[in-house]
Amino acid sequence: MNPDKLTQAVTEALNGAQQIAQTRHHQDIDIPHLWRTLVQPNELTAQIYTESGINLPQLNHVIDAELDKISVVEGVANWGQNMGRNLYQLFQDADKVRAELQDQFIATDTLVLALMRQQYNPIAEFLTKNGADEKQLRKVIDGIRGGQHVTSQTAENQYQALKKYGTDLVAKRARARWIQSSVGTKKSAM
Questions:
Q1: pLDDT by residue (tens digit) across 73-93?
Q2: How far from each other are the two terminal CA atoms of the chain, in whole angstroms?
Q3: CB burial readout 128-162, b (16+ within 10 A) else e
Q4: Confidence (pTM)
């Protein structure tokens, strides 16, 4: 895995995953550690799952159960310094997804799609049982991306920029017409 091919959000999520592994005294960082950071409120992954109809509290329960299954290692001062085999494979699959999407960097939404390729991962199994699949998640992601590709390490910040910071003039104009027609109707009734 080339860290230069990761977006800033993925790098930050990996740092958060490492902190979780250290706190829990886990030797390796694995998918549940990363997913614990990715599904926090206001994170893109949480938005993707919410728009896909996934129950986030139930998903968090599955993630916590997977974290609880990981062996605790005592007497070692370097917890969370290694990437687990499953997490390494996830990043290999994410790099393939990145290439398929014609992106330059692995973004958090790329990881969401790559997780669905982890056939025996309990988190992916939960998502599948609850109606999510790679095709459906990709549709949600395409809607959030608005046709954009990941061409910078800060790409996630640019998704839905108009929705976050701009004014939708069409919606504003339609609302103004609706208000005018409502006012006009009230005046004619008087």
A1: 887 667 767 888 999 999 999
A2: 71
A3: eeeebebeebbebbeebbeeeebeebebbeebbee
A4: 0.80
